[in-house]
Design goal:
Helix content: 25-40%
CATH class of the largest domain: Alpha Beta
Largest sheet: 5 strands, parallel
CATH topology of the largest domain: FAD/NAD(P)-binding domain
Strand order of the largest sheet: 7-3-2-11-18
CATH superfamily of the largest domain: FAD/NAD(P)-binding domain
Number of helices: 16
CATH architecture of the largest domain: 3-Layer(bba) Sandwich
Shape: globular
Length: 517
């Protein structure tokens, strides 16, 4: 039997304590909020691991139009131009809001923002905090601000396993806690649960993040969009002493922005002829590095000529990570490889953060607003999290607070087991994809979902990626099909519910056997 909490029925429930969830919570104040986080408050979030910062057109030589042009170019024809323009215009206001919440961005001696350059940006526009420790510093500041906010109740070590509905609307959350099952009654839920890198065996994100928000929303009937677009960061630290299954440390794009180059073990600068070279969009750089590795080469990031001894002062956190792995970036080359870093797809939302389910808002990486298209522009993710967190909160404050209906008791699902899913998705849905591998993943994952065991929830998210990838017969952005290497003339976004995803998966299975007969 689950304990039921009705005393929070007038509260907004925010699930997740990364940047999107924290900003939503602070913007809602003094509206009562219950913030639920699977781990410790502010811990195990991709936001806290972000190194670069927040992209915003703050420089005198910059503009929203230039930022938009870079975003659309990186998005490879699949950005929603209206959505992208709208979100980017709010960047300065989002930076100002974060400063009101206690975030202190790095500034030049004259008081202007210290702005970094990252891949595919035509201007220096990355506002950062504490050098390359931006994410951790931002999350720390917001966590402290929430601790001083009396209208917010934080519940740590609470994992939301299901959204509960009354009719077509949200009515509560079914949770697992150290003391047993818990039902939280609420009519307004914000999912800010982050990404899905934990589905893969090579990721730069917390390994427990498998797309929980996507799973929760999909099971409740929400539409998903562009699930096939998984971004691999080109330069994760490929240390000899790395432990399988644990996240790889990230070597920020900002290092390349300061002039570091990529070379293979023959000292060949294999991106020299590529437009933008090392600062080409992430999908291009990731594919190039993957091709080198597939040909038996190792790849290194070489910052010795560009930074040398200055590396440690400009990138203190990265320096520490490298030295822990036995690498001195001031004197030697940094071994790198692509790793899952961000998901451009997710729960379909409008520009107020509303999903297709009444009472459910989704913000941050779990959502898909149309900003990122087929390939996210560097540091647009924290920007989107802040902007959309603010917007969702304002939209919620304008909604009618209806009384919660009675919630019926329900069994809690078993804890998720990701191990079997990782073995399928990692080789099948990586940087380079082929029809046989993708379709094999579909049939294997569908079986896991239908068995409804410990692998079912992560398998549902992975199956969504596989089905969307099977249906996109082209190469675009972060989705590269070796059997369909060309990009189609018409750019098309795809929206599907869980029911349609399962139908598509079941139709793919017989086709595989027909093709192999």
């Amino acid at each position: 039997m689950s304990e039921k909490l009705h005393r929070f029925s007038d509260h907004v429930a925010v699930v997740g304590s990364g940047l999107a969830g924290l900003v939503t919570t602070l913007t809602l104040a003094p509206q009562p909020v219950i913030l639920l986080t699977r781990a410790a408050f502010g811990a195990e979030t991709s936001s806290a691991w972000a190194q670069g910062g927040i992209a915003a057109s703050l420089g005198l030589d910059d503009s929203v139009d230039l930022h938009l042009a870079d975003t659309l170019a990186a998005g490879d024809g699949l950005c929603d131009t209206v959505a992208a323009s709208s979100i980017l215009k709010d960047a300065p206001a989002a930076i100002a809001a974060l400063e009101r919440f206690g975030v202190h961005f790095d500034r030049e001696p004259d008081g202007t923002y210290m702005l970094g350059l990252e891949a595919a940006h035509c201007r220096r526009r990355i506002a950062h905090v504490a050098g390359d420790g931006s994410g951790a510093a931002i999350v720390r500041a917001l966590v402290e601000q929430i601790r001083r906010t009396p209208s917010t109740t934080v519940m740590e070590n609470v994992e939301v396993r299901r959204l509960l509905k009354s009719g077509d609307a949200v009515s509560g959350l079914l949770c697992a806690t150290p003391s047993g099952p818990l039902v939280v009654a609420t009519k307004r839920v914000v999912l800010a649960t982050g990404g899905l890198g934990g589905l893969y065996d090579t990721t730069t994100t917390p390994s427990g993040n498998y797309g929980q928000g996507i799973m929760l929303a999909a099971r409740a009937g929400a539409e998903l969009v562009d699930m096939e677009f998984v971004q691999f960061h080109p330069t994760a630290l490929d240390a000899a002493n790395r432990v399988a299954g644990l996240p790889l440390p990230l070597i920020s794009e900002a290092v390349r922005g300061e002039g570091a180059i990529l070379v293979n073990d023959r000292e060949e600068r294999f991106l020299a002829d590529q437009p933008g070279a090392e600062l080409a969009p992430r999908d291009i750089v990731a594919r190039a590095i993957s091709a080198e590795i597939a040909n038996g080469r190792r790849v290194f990031l070489d910052a010795r000529a560009a930074l040398g001894p200055r590396f440690a002062s400009r990138f203190p956190s990265i320096t520490d990570l490298c030295r822990e792995a036995g690498v001195d970036p001031t004197r030697g080359r940094i071994p790198v490889r692509p790793a899952v870093h961000y998901h451009m797809g997710g729960v379909a939302t409008n520009l107020r953060g509303q999903s297709t389910i009444e009472g459910l808002w989704v913000v941050g990486e779990a959502a898909s607003t149309g900003l990122h298209g087929a390939n996210r522009l560097a540091s647009n993710s924290l920007l989107e999290a802040a902007v959309m967190g603010i917007r969702a909160a304002r939209d919620i404050l304008a909604t009618n607070t209806a009384t919660c209906r009675k919630i019926e008791a329900t069994d809690i699902p078993v804890p998720a087991d990701l191990s079997a899913v990782r073995q399928i998705i990692s080789p099948s849905l990586g940087v380079l994809r082929t029809a046989p591998a993708v379709n094999h993943a579909v049939t294997s994952l569908l079986s896991m979902v239908e068995k409804d065991g410990p692998a079912a929830d992560p398998a549902l998210v992975a199956l969504s990626i596989a089905v969307f990838a099977s249906l996109r017969e082209e190469s675009r952005g972060a989705h590269a099909r070796t059997d369909y290497p060309m990009r189609l003339m018409e750019a098309r976004r795809r929206r599907m519910t869980l029911a349609s995803i399962l139908d598509a998966a079941r139709s793919i299975g017989p086709q595989i056997f027909a093709d192999s007969a």
